[in-house]
Amino acid sequence: MASHSDTLVVFFGATAGANGGKLGSDEREIILLVWQIVDLHEKKVGKIQQRLIKPDTLELTDQCKEETGLTVEELGKADHLDTVLQQFQQAVSAEVKALGRSSYTLCVDGPLLIRQALHPEASKKNLVLPECFYQFVDLKREFHRCCPNAGPVKDLSLPSMLEYLCLPAVNEQLAGVREVKSMMMIIQHILAEPYNHKFSSLEPVKYKFESGACSKTEAVDSETVIRARGLPWQSSDQDIARFFKGLNIAKGGVALCLNAQGRRNGEALVRFINSEHRDMALERHKHHMGSRYIEVYKATGEEFLKIAGGTSNEVAQFLSKENQVIIRMRGLPFTATQQDVLGFLGPDSPVTDGTEGLLFVKFPDGRPTGDAFVLFACEQYAQNALKKHKQILGKRYIELFRSTAAEVQQVLNRYMSTPLISTLPPPPMVPVPVLAAPPFITTASTRDCVRLRGLPYTAGIEDILEFMGEHTIDIKPHGVHMVLNQQGRPSGDAFIQMKSADRAFMVSQKCHKKMMKDRYVEVFQCSTEEMSFVLMGGTLNRSGLSPPPCKLPCLSPPTYAAFPSPAAMLSAEALYQPPLLATPRTPQPPTHSPAPALTYYSPQPQLYMNMNMNYTAYYPSPPVSPSTVGYFAAPPGSMAAAVAQPPPPVLPQPGALVRMQGLPYNAGVKDILSFFQGFQLQADSVLVLYNLSGQRSGEALVTFPSEEVARRAVAERSNLPLSGHPVRLMCCD
């Protein structure tokens, strides 16, 4: 529109649910639109127009019936929203033209009708709104500019503005007409003497979300950031922007969160242009994206920068081309080149600036990860590329997804700054001597180990030694650790402790992708700490690397029975769960060449455990393969001496535990996070407890960042209801 000063269209609407200050907060459909035109130059007003709208769900709340006086029968005879919007545009355009004016602007009592009701509903119903709905005049803001002593904008209402101007209340019974007449009286009064107000401030609504990069040094106001949780994993930044349609998101203000494996975890951080838009976004808590409801919580600027901020010049240069569609490719062959990727995408989806529009993700040592990001100049090219999802390049199928600038930053930051096996910070734990790390494993960050992945399930120690070849002499004594699953069977993974980090690096370079039987085996360099984490029961899955149960917080250590005597030392077998420990073979004499003497675990009395806990404890795999007895010489009794050593003391961990009792049995992590809303907890700080039957026990443990915060949570939330159940809270020592 060329100008907004010619004509104002006073505009009012109501929904089938909450209205007033909560308009649009319950996702109910618009059922009423009322408008009237005023010529700002001639001070002329048009005829009041009222239109009822038939919602898809013919159901009205009691509040709506009381405030509007409308009935389901009346709405059943009305037209749908798209038809009414066409009637509105035609009627207003004709009346403005009859007045000899060229443009008009909507004037509303606050932004909720446009931002929280009309735009979200039109987006869900795939309706294209006329251009006039993308900018409007907020009467409350204009009144505050004209009469600053009337109070803050958020406290203004039509009755309070009429009272300030000493104008009588409008006596009108028809729904919506009363509000439009009141707005018209206020407008005419502030246009006249002594105010002579000029309507000059337009409130814009962004047409689309603008992508862009964010620097870690950029200042981000915490009052403008929210966290959205429960998003479909395939949702893009444009999908999230569509969910918040009507609200203005800052440029590059959508950051999709990734888990430890670089996959989306259903959360996103969204940054708005100001706190007012952030507050309106919070009102969309548990609104729906498709069939899923989305939770919306407050977040901080630090959290946003941690996800979306970056410092890499390579990434900054890649993202410097604005208004590009970003596609993420996953599963690329490690030997794939830029020309291979361009050939795979084909002429129907040309990449922006050729090879400059490609960004390969690599490890710190320069090895490819199999991920890449691609820029496309328009949506059509991106759609053509997405059609190649799961098509073959080389011998691998390639996954393609929509991506964001924040995801590019996050993936590059993660791969360039973290070890090969991501580990989560362990939550506070209570000392349990038997659950301590085995004495033959020392936790350290030196990368003197290698991880073998993709082993044949029939592979044993002998096969690994043959696979290692000349590098066998660099293995530490008792340095081969087979990873078993919970059924006690080989998982296809193994860890090997080398004599130095240089030797481990050499093995990872020379043995990577080498064949064992009919399978190629991947070999990665890693640290002893990472190895220990996996051997202690940590698992790699879609949700990231999960800590073992023995690392989880507990209220009391398990109790044991059937010990030979209180002073008896535990045997080697006692350190491992019986299903994970196979009966060792009798050592066989070598037939090919002399070899070092073999050591093995002799049978010992079985240890029986009575676990009075809500989790099943399990222990790391034995230090050697269950299919063989051992290798390399060791001084007699060395293993017994190692086992006899007292476990290292458990260092205190940061944070404080709060125990929850009386939870509903269907309460999950999201319910508990909602219960503690405002305390900025993460999902991994909640542990729901189960009984021996595998059912939820009605209790949970929550880790808070400090004892002070934990005590405040207990004081504020203890005995408050969760789904009708009063929840008891207590701090754990």
TrEMBL record:
GO terms for biological process: cranial skeletal system development; mRNA processing; RNA splicing. PROSITE patterns: RRM. GO terms for molecular function: RNA binding. PANTHER family: HETEROGENEOUS NUCLEAR RIBONUCLEOPROTEIN-RELATED (PTHR13976). GO terms for cellular component: nucleus. It is found in: Nucleus. Residues 224-301, 656-733 form the RRM domain. Keywords: mRNA processing, mRNA splicing, Nucleus, Repeat, RNA-binding. It comes from Astyanax mexicanus. InterPro entries: ESRP (IPR050666), Nucleotide-bd_a/b_plait_sf (IPR012677), RBD_domain_sf (IPR035979), RNaseH-like_sf (IPR012337), RNaseH_sf (IPR036397), RRM_dom (IPR000504). mRNA splicing factor that regulates the formation of epithelial cell-specific isoforms. Specifically regulates the expression of FGFR2-IIIb, an epithelial cell-specific isoform of fgfr2. Acts by directly binding specific sequences in mRNAs. Binds the GU-rich sequence motifs in the ISE/ISS-3, a cis-element regulatory region present in the mRNA of fgfr2. The keyword Repeat applies. This is Epithelial splicing regulatory protein 2 isoform X1. Belongs to the ESRP family. The keyword Nucleus applies.
